[in-house]
Amino acid sequence: MQQINTVKEFFEIFSSYRTSTQYRFRGQSKSGWPLIPKVARKPFDHKHDFEIFRNWKRRAKGLLNKENSSEIDLLTIAQHYGLATRLLDWTMNPLIAAFFACNQHFDTDGELFIVKSSVIHSEKINDLFQDKIKSVVFIQPDGTSLRLNNQFGYFSLHNPADQEVSKQNQPSLESLIIPKNIKRELLFALNQYGINNLSVYPDLEGLTRHLNWFYSNYNEWDNSN
After folding, report:
1. Number of helices (H) and strands (E), helices first, in the chain?
2. Are 93 and 21 in contact (CB under 8 A)?
3. Cis check: omega of the bond before 160, within 30 degrees of 0
4. At 26, phi and psi to the nearest 5?
């Protein structure tokens, strides 16, 4: 675990990750949160996620306008709309991970995780709900949504759902602490590089979030020109 002390240091650190496409990054706005999927956290941990997903599928069919979608494609869509699943979001872009580490909980340090790992294409995943053999695998999904594409999204698939990403199953795992006192400044720097709510969520919700953020911080901009 390493602490980043300045925004400049953040960009210097990530220059060393440019030479490989095997790095995956994840930002969490509270340091110390475990790397487990939403369905393994309260209040969802009392119910098997297969049942949650089954009910989502039968109600979502009329809303998706997609034919012959695989189970993993449907699960990734559900994940990106907020359903509690056994998937955990990762990205190839460290700037996007930093955005998620900074955009909430400004009174708490954030944490950015780094894993160097091989990936399995989603079409090779046959059993999504396998609990007998403990494993964490990284998945390269198909681009089932604009959000997934814009976030350069990957997933870790956790079997069982409460299996945590750790040094035991991912020996390359590292983390960086982003102190609460630089979160806001880093968000301004990321926005200048095109990483903001509008690019991360390329829809009406993202546009609304971005404009709310922009105008609530209006005094930060130089309006002399």
Report:
1. 8, 8
2. no
3. yes
4. -145, 130
148 band by pLDDT with thresholds 50, 70 and 90: very high
Residue with tokens 């999904």: 141
Distances (CA, A) of 189 to 122, 141, 218: 34, 29, 15
Amino acid at 172: S
Q: Where are the alpha helices (DSSP H) in the chain?
A: 7-14, 49-64, 71-80, 94-102, 146-150, 180-192, 197-200, 204-216
What does each C-alpha distance from 27 to 60, 87, 204 come to in angstroms? Answer: 29, 15, 23
Does the CA dihedral 158-163-168-173 come out positive or negative? positive
- CB 197, CB 22: distance < 8 Å: no
> For the purposes of burial, counting CB atoms within 10 Å of the CB of 54, is it exposed (0-12), middle (13-18) or buried (19 or more)?
exposed
104: its two tokens: 């909430």
CB distance 89 to 153 below 8 Å: yes
User: Tell me, what DSSP letter sits at residue 132?
Assistant: S
Four-residue CA torsion sign, 207, 75, 136, 22: negative
137 beta partners: 157
Mean pLDDT of the chain: 92
Q: What would the pLDDT profile of 72-130 be if each residue is shown by its tens digit? A: 999 999 998 899 999 999 999 999 999 999 999 999 999 999 999 999 998 898 888 88
Tell me the mean pLDDT in the region 37-66. 90
Q: How far is CA 168 from CA 6, 115, 135, 172, 177, in A?
A: 31, 12, 10, 9, 21
DSSP 8-state symbol, 107: T
Q: Are 137 and 115 in contact (CB under 8 A)?
A: no
